Amino acid sequence: MIDIFKALSEESRLRILSIILEDELCVCEIESCLKMTQSNASRHLTALKRCGILESYKNAQWTYYRISNGFIQENKELWEYLKHKLKELPTYISDYETYRKCKAQGLCNCDKNPH
């Protein structure tokens, strides 16, 4: 539980979660949507994955992240809280608009094969 709350105590990680609420995303989409460097995004994604909030899979050289079903099942009340509160972040509206534009323009160069 301590690791979960440590991971959630960082604003960039909350922003990542707020856009992953909508759909699984490739690392390059997260970087583009949130204007993060690859190393910064990877550091935050690793923290969220290590504590069990996110899970990932690889498709060729690209890694996709999504909310872990195990996390949702084991932390139902926390998950319900997060689903509502993440949308109240001061950056949510602009992050979400950027996410929508990124998806609409197909900015990701990776060849997505959904799981």
TrEMBL record:
Q: InterPro entries attached here?
A: ArsR-like_HTH (IPR011991), HTH_ArsR_DNA-bd_dom (IPR001845), HTH_MetalResp_TranReg (IPR051081), WH-like_DNA-bd_sf (IPR036388), WH_DNA-bd_sf (IPR036390)
Which Pfam families does this one have? HTH_5
Annotated GO MF terms: DNA binding; DNA-binding transcription factor activity
CDD domains assigned = HTH_ARSR
Question: Any idea which UniProt keywords this protein has?
Answer: DNA-binding, Transcription, Transcription regulation
Name all HTH arsR-type domain ranges: 1-87
NCBIfam families given for it?
Answer: HTH_metalloreg
What is the protein's given name?
Winged helix-turn-helix transcriptional regulator
